[in-house]
Structure to design on (658 residues):
């Protein structure tokens, strides 16, 4: 075993797409995939020219790529406006009257925007922003919930050449303040409040606290979502503007021109800055540019999700995360897809909400996170069985490794044993999906993220950078730059180099451990930092968690290490049970014995702790850093907790400890 990767994550079952799916798939054989992938590596200029012909470039690229690590450039010489590929190009086709966004609010209201209507709203907002002085290269902060205006705001920024920085609507005032100050945003777009499990999150009030210490902000545009009765507004004269009023003003001729007939920008023009947590606790502002990012999300969207006219595609991520940027806004809209958006919590007012939405709207493609899938399992099959999910034809997974048990449940219970599943691996830094299985061309293995995407030269290597043998664990690396990669950490190029390109010479180090099997399929098991050293045994947290979740009573689990004088690290596991099971000492013993059988006695947990809920970010990732501190008995939790969804989960664990 190397780097914590053992046979517990080995999965021999192969799930082939049905003939009915393959017959109509964009790619219908492994041979077709292999041929196209080989072309993307050996003839990248021709590949990308062919695959981006349907995007709108004012001027074509002259040089495909140039790099001197960590600096990289793609599509040099090209001129484009990203919003034109997502909007304008569809207005002369049948997509003009097609739904671009179908949105349902948590209380249940429904709103549909066709491509024509979405274009009109983006133009109106862009004109208003232009009249507020927003110019190409300015930074604009967006602090909104899951409403169509979030996509409108992003596209309006792209139209003007302004660089947007979306701050997740669940972040605290302090997190918003720090992100605004780091990028020097001139304008903030926010809303009065957002619905979450029947309660109102007062975004404007939270923004006002942040704005007390954000000297770069000159103007604020405020969307009314909730209304004055539940979310009263305090508007600062001269700074704050009502969204619905400012977009209907008679704008200047220059603002009208810039919004209706937007300028084209260089391929490397900054499109957005998106902050992601760093190991030091200081968020990293990853900077993505225009042409390479758009090409990456466009090509991966059309091939991985096999998008077709008539599909209704639902990615359950929030627009505040990179998944929302790439696979709610820029990727699907550049493909002319109809996208479903939902504002609220997945289990409000009851655990049937997601399945009711799929049935009601006829969703055909469903892309969600393993954490959500395990929550669905915990809530029980009866909530699924109430609803007709026959409209689904393809499902996906994103965010963290999915254990085989959850994969098989997802395939059978949600997909009815007929829908291919595309598990996907990628990062904020990569911009677009790096590993997956193309649904009509390749079979799936539960728990494996599959094969490399086009133009991605990816490998598993040892500590010296030498390729690992098939089946051996190692470090997941990308061996050369790719178009959708982040170009730098905003304002800190040295940190960008030190974090990603310095650990292994001339390779991008993902920070993840993985192995590649004899069929070429990749198995990503999580952060290298999450490998524990227990009495000389290196154990990956992903394999322990996978074994735990395979126990019939366990819905979700997290494994962490705590300092131990004898072993070096002691293994502590936090377990959430399925609703029908009771936590007691007998069950603890059964779970421990289950680990003995699945991995070995050396992996038996030193402590098993039951939890009603695990601390997670708003995007659904388990916050293992906090669990490590709780396991170690920390008096105070350190670092940024602004991404934490439910502080009660931490409070409950700490009260159990006391």
């Amino acid at each position: 075993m190397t780097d914590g990767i053992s046979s517990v994550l080995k999965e021999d079952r192969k799930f082939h797409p049905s003939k009915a799916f393959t017959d109509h798939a964009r790619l219908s054989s492994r041979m077709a995939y292999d041929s196209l992938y080989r072309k993307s590596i050996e003839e990248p200029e021709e590949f990308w020219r062919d695959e981006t012909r349907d995007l709108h470039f004012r001027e074509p690229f002259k040089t495909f790529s140039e790099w001197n690590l960590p600096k990289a450039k793609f599509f040099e010489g090209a001129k484009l406006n990203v919003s034109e590929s997502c909007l304008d190009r569809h207005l002369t086709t049948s997509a003009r009257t097609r739904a671009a966004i179908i949105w349902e609010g948590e209380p249940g209201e429904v709103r549909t925007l066709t491509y024509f209507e979405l274009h009109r709203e983006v133009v109106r907002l862009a004109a208003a922003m232009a009249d507020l002085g927003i110019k190409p290269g300015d930074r604009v902060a967006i602090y909104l919930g899951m409403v169509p205006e979030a996509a409108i705001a992003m596209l309006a920024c792209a139209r003007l050449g302004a660089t947007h920085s979306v701050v997740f609507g669940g972040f605290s005032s302090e997190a918003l303040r720090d992100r605004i100050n780091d990028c020097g945003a001139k304008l903030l777009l926010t809303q009065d409040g957002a619905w979450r499990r029947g309660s109102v999150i007062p975004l404007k009030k939270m923004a006002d606290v942040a704005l007390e210490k954000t000297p770069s902000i000159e103007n604020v545009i405020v969307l009314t979502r909730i209304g004055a009765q539940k979310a009263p507004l305090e508007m600062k004269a001269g700074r704050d503007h009502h969204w619905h009023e400012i977009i209907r003003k008679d704008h200047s001729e220059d603002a009208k021109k810039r919004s209706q007939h937007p300028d084209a920008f260089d391929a490397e023009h900054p499109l957005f800055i998106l902050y992601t947590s760093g190991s030091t606790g200081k968020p990293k502002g990853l900077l993505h540019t225009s042409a390479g990012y758009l090409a990456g999300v466009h090509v991966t969207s059309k091939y991985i999700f096999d998008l077709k006219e008539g599909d209704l595609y639902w990615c359950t991520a929030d627009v505040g995360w990179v998944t929302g940027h790439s696979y709610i806004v820029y990727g699907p809209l550049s493909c002319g897809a109809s996208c479903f958006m939902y504002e609220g919590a997945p289990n409000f007012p009851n655990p049937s909400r997601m399945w009711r939405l799929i049935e009601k709207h006829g969703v055909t493609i469903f892309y969600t996170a393993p954490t959500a899938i395990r929550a669905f399992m915990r809530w029980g099959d009866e909530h699924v069985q109430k609803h007709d999910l026959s409209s689904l034809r393809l499902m996906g997974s994103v965010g963290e490794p999915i254990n085989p048990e959850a994969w098989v449940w997802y395939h059978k219970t949600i997909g009815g044993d007929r829908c291919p599943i595309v598990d996907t691996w990628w990062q904020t830094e990569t911009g677009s999906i790096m590993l997956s299985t193309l649904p009509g061309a390749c079979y799936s293995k539960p728990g494996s993220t599959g094969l490399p995407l086009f133009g991605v030269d990816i490998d598993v290597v040892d500590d010296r950078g030498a390729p690992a043998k098939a089946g051996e664990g190692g470090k997941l690396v990308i061996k050369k730059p790719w178009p959708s990669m982040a170009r730098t950490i905003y304002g800190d190029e040295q940190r960008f180099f030190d974090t990603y390109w310095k650990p292994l010479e001339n390779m991008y180090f993902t920070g993840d451990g993985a192995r590649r099997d004899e069929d070429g399929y990749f198995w990503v098991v999580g952060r290298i930092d999450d490998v524990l050293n227990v009495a000389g045994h290196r154990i990956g947290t992903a394999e322990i968690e996978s074994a735990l979740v395979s126990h019939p009573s366990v819905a979700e689990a997290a494994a962490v290490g705590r300092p131990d004088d004898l072993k070096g690290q002691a293994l502590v596991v936090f377990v959430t049970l399925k609703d029908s099971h009771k936590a007691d000492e007998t069950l603890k013993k059964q779970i421990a014995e289950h680990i003995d059988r699945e991995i070995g006695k050396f992996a038996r947990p030193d402590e098993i702790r039951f939890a009603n809920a695990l601390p997670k970010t708003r995007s659904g990732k388990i916050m293992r850093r906090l669990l490590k501190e709780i396991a170690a008995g920390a008096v105070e939790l350190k670092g940024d907790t602004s991404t934490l969804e439910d502080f009660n989960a931490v409070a409950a664990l700490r009260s159990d400890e006391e």
Summary: The radius of gyration is 24 Å. The chain has three domains: 12-81+266-527, 112-263, 535-657. The longest strand covers residues 554-564. The CA atoms of residues 275 and 285 lie 4 Å apart.
